User: What shape does this take?
Amino acid sequence: MKTFFALAAVLAASSSASVKADVIADWTFQTSASTNNIIGTGRTPGATQSGISADIGFGTASASHVSASTAWSIPSGNGSANSWSANNWAAGDYFQFSISTIGYTGVTLSYDQTGSASGPGAFSLQYSTDGLNFTPSGGNNAIILSTWSPSSHASGFTFNYDLSSVSTLNEAPSAYFRIVDQAPTTGGAINGGTVLTAGTDRIDNFVVNAVADAPEPSCIALLLVGGSALAFSQRRKG
Assistant: This one.
Protein backbone atom coordinates (compact mmCIF):
# COMPACT_ATOMS: atom_id res chain seq x y z
CA MET A 1 0.00 0.00 0.00
CA LYS A 2 2.88 2.33 0.77
CA THR A 3 4.15 1.76 -2.77
CA PHE A 4 0.79 2.77 -4.20
CA PHE A 5 0.67 6.00 -2.22
CA ALA A 6 4.29 6.77 -3.10
CA LEU A 7 3.48 6.34 -6.80
CA ALA A 8 0.40 8.51 -6.49
CA ALA A 9 2.47 11.21 -4.79
CA VAL A 10 5.04 11.13 -7.59
CA LEU A 11 2.32 11.44 -10.22
CA ALA A 12 0.72 14.34 -8.39
CA ALA A 13 4.06 16.09 -8.07
CA SER A 14 4.90 15.62 -11.76
CA SER A 15 1.45 16.85 -12.74
CA SER A 16 1.80 20.03 -10.69
CA ALA A 17 5.34 20.56 -11.92
CA SER A 18 4.07 20.60 -15.50
CA VAL A 19 2.61 24.06 -14.99
CA LYS A 20 6.08 25.49 -14.47
CA ALA A 21 7.61 27.02 -17.59
CA ASP A 22 10.78 25.48 -18.96
CA VAL A 23 13.48 27.21 -20.98
CA ILE A 24 13.20 25.90 -24.54
CA ALA A 25 16.04 28.02 -25.91
CA ASP A 26 18.34 30.78 -24.70
CA TRP A 27 20.78 32.77 -26.82
CA THR A 28 23.40 34.39 -24.59
CA PHE A 29 26.06 34.60 -27.34
CA GLN A 30 28.73 33.35 -24.96
CA THR A 31 29.60 29.94 -26.41
CA SER A 32 32.14 29.37 -29.15
CA ALA A 33 29.38 28.06 -31.45
CA SER A 34 27.48 31.32 -31.31
CA THR A 35 30.43 33.69 -31.46
CA ASN A 36 32.15 31.81 -34.27
CA ASN A 37 28.98 31.79 -36.34
CA ILE A 38 28.68 35.56 -35.97
CA ILE A 39 32.23 36.69 -36.59
CA GLY A 40 33.70 33.73 -38.47
CA THR A 41 35.51 34.00 -41.78
CA GLY A 42 33.22 35.07 -44.58
CA ARG A 43 30.43 36.18 -42.26
CA THR A 44 31.40 39.85 -41.91
CA PRO A 45 30.29 41.93 -43.69
CA GLY A 46 27.15 40.53 -45.29
CA ALA A 47 23.44 41.07 -45.65
CA THR A 48 22.47 37.89 -43.78
CA GLN A 49 23.48 35.65 -40.92
CA SER A 50 22.28 32.11 -40.24
CA GLY A 51 22.90 28.95 -38.24
CA ILE A 52 23.51 30.61 -34.87
CA SER A 53 22.71 27.89 -32.35
CA ALA A 54 21.09 28.58 -28.98
CA ASP A 55 23.58 28.53 -26.11
CA ILE A 56 21.03 26.71 -23.95
CA GLY A 57 18.37 24.38 -25.35
CA PHE A 58 17.63 24.01 -29.05
CA GLY A 59 17.00 26.63 -31.69
CA THR A 60 18.61 28.62 -34.49
CA ALA A 61 19.03 32.37 -34.92
CA SER A 62 19.47 34.28 -38.16
CA ALA A 63 19.27 37.87 -39.41
CA SER A 64 18.65 39.81 -42.57
CA HIS A 65 19.57 43.33 -43.70
CA VAL A 66 19.08 45.11 -46.99
CA SER A 67 22.70 46.24 -47.01
CA ALA A 68 25.38 43.75 -47.99
CA SER A 69 27.86 45.99 -46.16
CA THR A 70 26.35 45.19 -42.75
CA ALA A 71 29.01 44.42 -40.16
CA TRP A 72 28.12 41.91 -37.42
CA SER A 73 29.90 41.89 -34.09
CA ILE A 74 29.75 40.67 -30.47
CA PRO A 75 30.23 43.70 -28.18
CA SER A 76 29.60 43.65 -24.43
CA GLY A 77 26.29 42.16 -23.42
CA ASN A 78 23.85 43.12 -20.68
CA GLY A 79 25.67 41.53 -17.77
CA SER A 80 27.84 39.30 -19.95
CA ALA A 81 30.87 39.45 -22.21
CA ASN A 82 29.01 39.22 -25.53
CA SER A 83 25.84 40.29 -27.30
CA TRP A 84 24.85 40.31 -30.98
CA SER A 85 25.17 43.63 -32.82
CA ALA A 86 24.87 45.01 -36.35
CA ASN A 87 25.05 48.33 -38.21
CA ASN A 88 23.59 49.46 -41.57
CA TRP A 89 19.98 49.29 -40.38
CA ALA A 90 17.00 49.94 -42.64
CA ALA A 91 13.30 49.62 -41.92
CA GLY A 92 12.32 45.95 -42.16
CA ASP A 93 15.75 44.59 -41.21
CA TYR A 94 15.54 42.02 -38.42
CA PHE A 95 17.00 39.52 -35.97
CA GLN A 96 15.19 36.15 -36.07
CA PHE A 97 14.99 33.20 -33.68
CA SER A 98 13.39 29.86 -34.58
CA ILE A 99 12.47 26.91 -32.36
CA SER A 100 10.12 23.92 -32.15
CA THR A 101 7.41 23.91 -29.47
CA ILE A 102 6.43 20.26 -29.94
CA GLY A 103 5.51 19.03 -26.45
CA TYR A 104 4.99 22.56 -25.15
CA THR A 105 2.28 25.20 -24.81
CA GLY A 106 2.00 28.67 -23.27
CA VAL A 107 4.96 30.42 -24.87
CA THR A 108 6.55 33.45 -23.19
CA LEU A 109 9.80 35.15 -24.11
CA SER A 110 12.14 37.96 -23.13
CA TYR A 111 15.22 39.67 -24.50
CA ASP A 112 17.52 42.65 -23.87
CA GLN A 113 18.03 45.33 -26.54
CA THR A 114 19.85 48.63 -26.89
CA GLY A 115 21.64 50.65 -29.58
CA SER A 116 23.86 53.58 -30.41
CA ALA A 117 22.56 57.16 -30.68
CA SER A 118 22.37 56.99 -34.48
CA GLY A 119 20.91 53.49 -34.53
CA PRO A 120 17.20 52.76 -35.11
CA GLY A 121 14.97 53.77 -32.22
CA ALA A 122 11.94 51.48 -32.65
CA PHE A 123 11.46 47.75 -33.16
CA SER A 124 8.53 45.34 -33.07
CA LEU A 125 8.34 41.69 -32.07
CA GLN A 126 6.60 39.51 -34.65
CA TYR A 127 5.84 35.79 -34.65
CA SER A 128 5.07 33.15 -37.28
CA THR A 129 4.69 29.39 -37.70
CA ASP A 130 5.60 29.25 -41.40
CA GLY A 131 8.48 31.74 -41.58
CA LEU A 132 6.63 33.78 -44.21
CA ASN A 133 3.58 35.37 -42.62
CA PHE A 134 4.38 37.30 -39.44
CA THR A 135 2.03 38.82 -36.88
CA PRO A 136 3.13 41.77 -34.70
CA SER A 137 2.74 41.31 -30.96
CA GLY A 138 1.64 44.65 -29.54
CA GLY A 139 3.13 47.95 -30.62
CA ASN A 140 6.66 49.10 -31.27
CA ASN A 141 9.34 49.12 -28.59
CA ALA A 142 11.26 52.34 -28.01
CA ILE A 143 14.92 51.45 -27.68
CA ILE A 144 16.90 52.99 -24.81
CA LEU A 145 20.42 54.21 -25.49
CA SER A 146 23.11 52.82 -23.20
CA THR A 147 26.52 51.19 -23.04
CA TRP A 148 25.93 47.85 -21.37
CA SER A 149 28.13 46.64 -18.56
CA PRO A 150 29.43 43.08 -18.88
CA SER A 151 29.64 42.83 -15.10
CA SER A 152 26.03 43.66 -14.18
CA HIS A 153 22.62 43.08 -15.76
CA ALA A 154 20.30 46.11 -16.08
CA SER A 155 16.66 44.99 -16.14
CA GLY A 156 15.52 48.29 -17.69
CA PHE A 157 16.60 47.01 -21.12
CA THR A 158 14.53 43.81 -20.96
CA PHE A 159 11.39 43.34 -23.06
CA ASN A 160 8.91 40.67 -21.94
CA TYR A 161 6.17 39.05 -24.02
CA ASP A 162 3.38 36.72 -22.91
CA LEU A 163 2.29 34.78 -26.00
CA SER A 164 0.52 32.03 -24.07
CA SER A 165 -2.83 33.02 -25.62
CA VAL A 166 -1.49 32.51 -29.17
CA SER A 167 -2.71 28.97 -29.79
CA THR A 168 -0.85 28.60 -33.10
CA LEU A 169 2.44 28.68 -31.18
CA ASN A 170 1.42 25.64 -29.12
CA GLU A 171 2.86 22.30 -30.28
CA ALA A 172 4.28 24.00 -33.37
CA PRO A 173 6.94 22.12 -35.38
CA SER A 174 8.43 25.52 -36.17
CA ALA A 175 7.93 28.85 -34.42
CA TYR A 176 9.68 32.02 -35.55
CA PHE A 177 10.22 35.26 -33.65
CA ARG A 178 11.52 38.39 -35.37
CA ILE A 179 12.68 41.67 -33.89
CA VAL A 180 12.04 44.03 -36.78
CA ASP A 181 13.36 47.56 -37.34
CA GLN A 182 10.41 49.95 -37.60
CA ALA A 183 12.38 53.21 -37.75
CA PRO A 184 12.23 55.33 -40.90
CA THR A 185 15.53 56.35 -42.44
CA THR A 186 14.99 59.95 -41.36
CA GLY A 187 14.05 60.97 -37.83
CA GLY A 188 14.09 57.41 -36.57
CA ALA A 189 17.34 57.24 -34.62
CA ILE A 190 17.40 56.76 -30.86
CA ASN A 191 18.35 60.41 -30.42
CA GLY A 192 15.56 61.54 -32.77
CA GLY A 193 17.85 62.24 -35.70
CA THR A 194 18.73 60.24 -38.79
CA VAL A 195 19.63 56.57 -38.67
CA LEU A 196 23.22 56.50 -39.90
CA THR A 197 25.16 53.73 -41.62
CA ALA A 198 27.38 53.35 -38.56
CA GLY A 199 24.40 53.29 -36.18
CA THR A 200 24.18 49.99 -34.33
CA ASP A 201 21.62 47.93 -32.48
CA ARG A 202 22.40 44.98 -30.26
CA ILE A 203 20.46 42.17 -28.63
CA ASP A 204 21.24 39.77 -25.79
CA ASN A 205 19.67 37.07 -23.61
CA PHE A 206 16.89 36.02 -25.98
CA VAL A 207 14.98 33.42 -23.93
CA VAL A 208 11.94 31.37 -24.96
CA ASN A 209 9.94 29.66 -22.20
CA ALA A 210 6.96 27.30 -22.42
CA VAL A 211 5.05 24.78 -20.31
CA ALA A 212 5.67 21.09 -20.94
CA ASP A 213 2.58 19.04 -21.73
CA ALA A 214 1.08 17.22 -18.74
CA PRO A 215 0.88 13.41 -18.87
CA GLU A 216 -2.21 12.09 -20.63
CA PRO A 217 -5.01 11.13 -18.20
CA SER A 218 -5.01 7.62 -19.66
CA CYS A 219 -1.31 7.25 -18.85
CA ILE A 220 -1.87 8.43 -15.30
CA ALA A 221 -4.76 6.01 -14.88
CA LEU A 222 -2.67 3.13 -16.24
CA LEU A 223 0.16 3.89 -13.85
CA LEU A 224 -2.22 4.11 -10.92
CA VAL A 225 -3.79 0.76 -11.83
CA GLY A 226 -0.35 -0.78 -12.12
CA GLY A 227 0.69 0.73 -8.79
CA SER A 228 -2.46 -0.56 -7.15
CA ALA A 229 -1.84 -4.06 -8.49
CA LEU A 230 1.74 -3.96 -7.27
CA ALA A 231 0.64 -2.83 -3.82
CA PHE A 232 -1.98 -5.60 -3.66
CA SER A 233 0.59 -8.20 -4.71
CA GLN A 234 3.06 -7.06 -2.08
CA ARG A 235 0.34 -7.13 0.59
CA ARG A 236 -0.54 -10.73 -0.27
CA LYS A 237 3.11 -11.74 -0.08
CA GLY A 238 3.29 -10.14 3.35
User: Anything to note?
Assistant: The radius of gyration is 23 Å. The chain has two domains: 1-19+217-238, 22-213. The mean pLDDT is 86.
